[in-house]
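User: For a benchmark we're assembling, each entry needs the component sequences followed by a predicted structure for the full assembly. Here are entry 17's components. Please fill in the structure.
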Amino acid sequence: MGTGSAAFLLAQVGAYAARKFDERLGELELTPPQAGLLRAIAMQPGRSQQAIAEQLGTAPTRLVALVDGLERRGAIQRRRNPDDRRLHALFLTEGGQQLMRSIGQVAMAHGADLTAALDDSERAQLQRLLLRIAEDKKLAAGVHPGFGSI
Amino acid sequence: MGTGSAAFLLAQVGAYAARKFDERLGELELTPPQAGLLRAIAMQPGRSQQAIAEQLGTAPTRLVALVDGLERRGAIQRRRNPDDRRLHALFLTEGGQQLMRSIGQVAMAHGADLTAALDDSERAQLQRLLLRIAEDKKLAAGVHPGFGSI
DNA sequence: TATTGTTATACTCTATAACTATA
DNA sequence: TATAGTTATAGAGTATAACAATA
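Assistant: Structure for entry 17:
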């Protein structure tokens, strides 16, 4: 296996990054899937639950409970499309946008802590190399692995 | 959040690496926790289930079913310590050692595929940077995140 | 009484399949 | 009949607590 191979380290450090980010999200009383959903809505508001489920690579049924929770909390809204009343378009509320800003701050602090051992040029280099892999593997830009199937 | 921040990309690419490795382990009919346990035993045979659970950062109860499965399969053995018959020392069998070699091959192919977009010097650079982070964060060397708590 | 491992129980998360309402 | 979303059911995985054997 090679204790320190790049792939092994990637899985190891990546899991650590995800876990720590999860912990920090906990301070906002959010789970990674919730944050991923908020982010997906923020990227392109007004889409149906199906469209978002497809982007996130998950089954539409899984969104229901997530949407319920975030709606109860006042972070997002379902709005029925008057032209086709089967569709629920999803939007962030004011509070939801504020929440996204908080997530952004948390992510920033997380990123700084995670790469604290690197200087600026090393951090940029790491980012470049990871981006090359992400593009090669066609990982959807901006879709955090809070959803299992990426 | 910064769509392409180093931390975000790390979680994203790391999750992809873990998932792909999981798929490849499937060819050997192994799960990530099983592979992690085999590896832990291979690193230092003869330890008790408790000692291994502690290294893996998991509850000892979780090992029971894993050890059962791998023992039924003939990959590992429980041996009672005659001096303290409460302890079950764990060892790899011949077949278990062969299985570890297969895992090594699978991991090698996995690593080559994952970093296919990089040349040798870039791969080495990535490895160096990740290792710096792993050391900074005191991630246990050689413990794959098949176990949630790393 | 303390410790190792096991068993039993419950809980979380997710996937799958039926159902409803709209079209 | 087909589609969007919901609800119901079941399954995997894991954590917690009670238990038995040994010290």
